[in-house]
Amino acid sequence: MMGAGKSTIGPLVAGRLGRRFVDTDALVEDEAGATVGQVFATQGEPAFRAIERAVVAEAGGTGPPAVVAVGGGAVLDERNCEVMRRGRAVVWLRARPATLAARVDDGPVRPLLAEPGGAGPEAVLERLSAERAPRYATLATMTVDVDGRTPEDVADEIVAALGPGA
Fold it and tell me: How far apart are CA 46 and CA 152, in angstroms?
C-alpha cells in the first residue's frame, strides 16, 4: 500500500543484499514522461495500469537479481502477480490505514486519495486496504508489520528472514 515504506525500505534491503533496487513507479514515470499523478490525471487509471503492467514485467524479467518495489495496486492484475511469484520472495509491508494516512499526508499527490465525495485519506486507505489485503496475503511469502518501526529495523527483519545467500 502507498505509505507502507516500499521506497524507503526497498533500497535498504537491496543495499544489505548487494542488489540493485527497482521502483516500478519510477519506471512508469520514465516510460510515460510524466509523474504517476499526471498519468492518472491526463490518461486515467487504465492507462497507468497498462504502463505499470509493462514495467513490472520488465523489472521481473531476466537480469541480475533485484529488490523490486511495486505499487500497491499492482496486485489487482493477475499478470503482475505471475511475475512476482517468479521471484524469490514477495514481501508485504503491512501497516494500519492510520499509519499509511499519516505517512502520505505530506507527500506527493496520490491520485487514488483524491476520491470524489471528499472522503479523507484514512477512509480511502481503509477501503483500499480491505479490498487488497486478501490479494496481498495470498501473494506474499513474507508479511512484515511496519507500524511503529524504523525502516532499518524492518529491513533487518526482511534480510534475516531471507537467510544467507539471499
Answer: 35
